[in-house]
Amino acid sequence: MRGFLPAMELQRPASLSEALQMLAAHTGRPFAGGTDLMVVYNAGKLRETRFLDIARLPELQGIRETPEYLDLGALCTFTELLAHPAIHRHFPNLVKSAKATGALAIQNRGTLGGNIANASPAADTPPCLLAYGAELELVSPRGTRVVPYELFHQGYKVMDLAADELVTRIRVPKPSGTSVHYFRKVGTRQAQAIAKLSLALVAQVADGCVANLRIGLGAVAPAPVRACHAEAVLQGQPLANLPVAVALEALLADMSPIDDIRSTAHYRSIVTRNLLAQALRTLSATGN
User: Fold this and answer.
1) Which residues contact 226 (CB under 8 A, 6 or more apart)?
2) Which percentage of the chain shows pLDDT scores above 90?
3) Most buried among 9, 150, 224, 249, by the most CB within 10 A?
4) Using an 8 Å Cβ cutoff, are 174 and 68 in contact?
5) 178-285 is classed in which CATH architecture?
6) Burial environment of residue 108 by CB neighbours within 10 A (0 to 12, 13 to 18, 19 or more)
7) What is the pLDDT of residue 5?
8) d(Cα 185, Cα 19) in Å, to the nearest integer?
9) Looking at residue 1, what is its pLDDT?
10) What percent of the chain has pLDDT over 70?
């Protein structure tokens, strides 16, 4: 059964302050690009009937660059990410993940904040944000707080986000020195497919060794996760002699894949390790 549109109510707050007050009063669920919500609505499974249109709030828009980081508004679309020179210059994994997100219509409407707050384990940008060490700005009537993105997802569709809070901005520190960036999404098709699994890796190279390595995983756990066990094996290791086999074994402790309509736990386990092996070959090549 499809959703029944006349039963839906959409309010448009005039400011961020008004939007936060409406959230606190449980007036409705935030609605920005709507690319995820409309799928659920069209399937007749959207339980909420009251929404807040936050798509025009200026505080959630724009990309600001400083010498240390990029500050991305939660309403930044994938198209805006793809058009910004600083994203291409400093965050190539975000470029690849934005290109892998749906078709052009989805990229034009879908937002980075929505990709985060929808909390799908298979979302395309979260593994990259984990690998880049992103932070989230969360705002409520009680004030503003900053949360490391790696602590934001706490389980399937469970987030460190109160009912009266909005994700307003995403701050991503610029990698320094010689950096290696790797992102790969595996889906049924080359494009317009939900990920069976994905892996993002970012590392600095210092004196021929791995430094500041971070690995983000998608669709292999109840939420996007960092591969902390594999990272610990690789940190500080010489590029000429990376302990690849040990890292691939450690990666198993970072995953809890399941069987679902898109893939199997066995496939996800094998292919995620294959992607890490490929990423480490790319990393090793920087030392040659």
Assistant:
1) 130, 131, 150, 214, 215, 216, 217, 254
2) 82
3) 224
4) yes
5) 2-Layer Sandwich (3.30)
6) middle
7) 67
8) 35
9) 47
10) 97
Residue 68, token pair as written in the block: 């240390």
Q: Which two tokens stand for residue 1?
A: 């059964």
Residue owning tokens 């706490």: 154
Q: What is the CATH number of domain 59-173?
A: 3.30.465.10
In this structure, the dihedral spanned by the alpha carbons of residues 187, 189, 192 and 196, taken in order and rounded to 10 degrees, is -10
The β-bridge partners of 162 are none
Q: CB–CB of 179/133 below 8 Å?
A: no
β-partners of residue 167 are 138
- SS3 per-residue string spanning the chain: CCCCHHHCEEECCCCHHHHHHHHHCCCCEEECCCCCHHHHHHCCCCCCCEEEECCCCHHHCCEEECCCEEEEECCCEHHHHHHCHHHHHHCHHHHHHHHCCCCHHHHHHCEHHHHHHCCCCCCCCHHHHHHCCCEEEEEECCEEEEEEHHHCEEECCEECCCCCCEEEEEEEECCCCEEEEEEEEECCCCCCCCCCEEEEEEEEEECCEEEEEEEEEECCCCCCEECHHHHHHHCCCEHHHCCHHHHHHHHHHHCCCCCCCCCCHHHHHHHHHHHHHHHHHHHHHCCC
| pTM exceeds 0.85 | yes
* Rounded-to-integer distance, Cα 272 and Cα 268, Å: 6
Q: Taking the domains of the chain in order of start, what are their residue ranges?
A: 5-52, 59-173, 178-285
The tokens for 183 are 């992102």
